[in-house]
Amino acid sequence: MENIGKIDKAELFVVKIPLVSPFVTGSGTVEYRESLLLKLTSGEFYGWGECAAFRDPWYHYETIDTSLHIAETYLLPKLLRSSGLIPEMIPELYSWISGHNMSKAMIENSIIDLYAKKNDVPVFHILGGTRKRIRSGISLGITKDIDTLLGNIEDAVRKKYHKIKIKIRKGWDVNVVSAIRSSYPYINLTADANGKYSGDDVSIMKVLDKFDLKMIEQPLGPESLLEHSNLQKQMNTPLCLDESITGVRAAETAVSLKSCKAICVKQGRVGGLISALKIKDHCVENRVRVWCGGMLETGIGRAFNLHLQSIEGFGFPGDISETSRYFKEDIVKDPVVLDRDGYIELPHGNGAGIDVDEKKIEKFLVFRKKMVSEK
Ligand code: OSB
Ligand code: MG
Predict the structure, then answer these.
(1) pLDDT 10s per residue in the chain (375 long)?
(2) Is 266 an annotated catalytic residue?
(3) Which atom of ligand 1 is nearest to the CA of 321?
(4) Ligand 1 pocket residues where CB is under 6 Å
C-alpha cells in the first residue's frame, strides 16, 4: 500500500444543519447539528473527516471551537509538515497532545479516507471489515408524552430496526419502559441515561432490571467507573458505558474494574478508527460486548461508523440509523437507507465511499478556514 505522500492543503468547514425534530436526551437537546468538517488534499486525491464534537459541552468537554483550536494550532500544522504517513502513524504523531480525541479523530478519519482512495480500496478493507451489510439501530429521544414515543417506536418497528434505544432520565424511565414493554414485550430494547443518575438511584435501576432491557447505557457520570462496577454487581441487565470511554486506556480500565458488560464505541470520541479497533479487540478478548455508537453525524461521520460496524466483533447493533431520521438535507449525495430487513448496505466505492456535495456545504456554512503546506 502506498503512503499518503504530502498533504498540500487542509480546509476546515463548520456547517449548521437543522434536524428534522429536536433530539432530547437527559443531559442536553440538539436542534441543529453544527459540525466541524475537514477536507485534506494531496495531489489529485482528497480525504474527508467530521468531528464528533457538538457546539456546547453537554455530552463531552470538547466543542466545535476547542476542536477547531486544537486542529488549527497543533494537529494540522504538524500534518502539513509531515510526509510519507500511513494511518497507523497518526496516534503516535499526536500522542504528546493530551486528550482532544474528537479533534484527533477528525484528522485520522480524513487521512484514512485519503489513504484508502490513493490505494483504490474501501475504508472497511483497511480496517478488516467483512460484513457487506450491517444491522441498523435507532436512538429515540425524550418526547412530550409517552404516546408520542410509542408512535416513534411503532415507526421503528415497522422499518425493522434491529435495536431500539430510548433515552431515559428521572421521571421518564420506569413509567416509559413499562409502557413500551406492555405493547412490545420482545423488541430488542435498550435505555440510555446519559449519566444523569447517581449512586442514590439504585432502587430505580433495580426496577428497570425487570424489563429485559438488553443494556442500560451510562446510568452514572462519565468518571464513575468504580460506581458503575458496584452497580453492575447488583444488576442482571448489562451496563454499557458510553461517555466514560474516552479512549483506549479508559476502556481497559472499565473492563478490568468490571464497570460494564458492554461498551458503546464512538470512534469519533476515542481518537479515531484505529483506537476504536484496539478497544474492540480488548472487548472481544474479555467477552465484553461492543458496538458502534453515533453522534448525530452528517453523512461523512455516519459513513465511517458504518465501515467500523462492518467488522466482525461488533456484536450488537449500533446506533446507525437512516439519514432521514435526522436530516431532510445532508451534505453527502447518497443517503443511508434501510433495506426491507432493516439492514444498511456498506457504501460502494473506494475511501469512505461517500460523495460530498460541496454546494450543500456552502448552503449550511457558518465558518471556513484554509491552511496550505509551506512546501
Ligand atoms: O448518548 O449515544 C448517545 C446522540 C448525541 C449524543 C449522545 C448520544 C446520542 C445518541 C444518538 O444516542 C446516536 C445517533 O443516532 O447518532
Ligand atoms: Mg449514549
Answers:
(1) 999 999 999 999 999 999 999 999 999 999 999 999 999 999 999 999 999 999 999 999 999 999 999 999 999 999 999 999 999 999 999 999 999 999 999 999 999 999 999 999 999 999 999 999 999 999 999 999 999 999 999 999 999 999 999 999 999 999 999 999 999 999 999 999 999 999 999 999 999 999 999 999 999 999 999 999 999 999 999 999 999 999 999 999 999 999 999 999 999 999 999 999 999 999 999 999 999 999 999 999 999 999 999 999 999 999 999 999 999 999 999 999 999 999 999 998 999 999 999 999 999 999 999 999 976
(2) yes
(3) 15
(4) 59, 139, 192, 194, 242, 293-296, 319, 321
Which amino acid makes up residue 226?
A: L
Grid cell, residue 227, equals: 460506581
Question: Is residue 117 flagged as an active site residue?
Answer: no
Strand bridging mode 45-50 / 29-42: antiparallel
Residue nearest to atom 14 of ligand 1 (CA): 294
Please provide residue 251's backbone torsions phi and psi, each rounded to the nearest 5 degrees. Answer: -65, -45
State the Cα–Cα distance between residues 85 and 108, nearest whole angstrom: 11
Instruction: Name the active-site residue from 39, 117, 266, 280.
Output: 266
Helix (H) or strand (E) holding 356: none
Cα–ligand 2 centroid distance for 217 (angstroms): 6
Cα–Cα distance for residue pair 77/64, rounded to 1 Å: 18
CB 215 within 8 A of CB 190: yes
pTM above 0.85, yes or no: yes
What length does the chain have?
375
In the set 163, 167, 214, 360, the catalytic residue is 167
Which of 237, 242, 205 lies closest to 222 in space, CA to CA? Answer: 242
Q: Which phi and psi (to 5°) does residue 369 adopt?
A: -150, 140
Q: Is 185 helix (H, G, I), strand (E, B) or coil?
A: coil
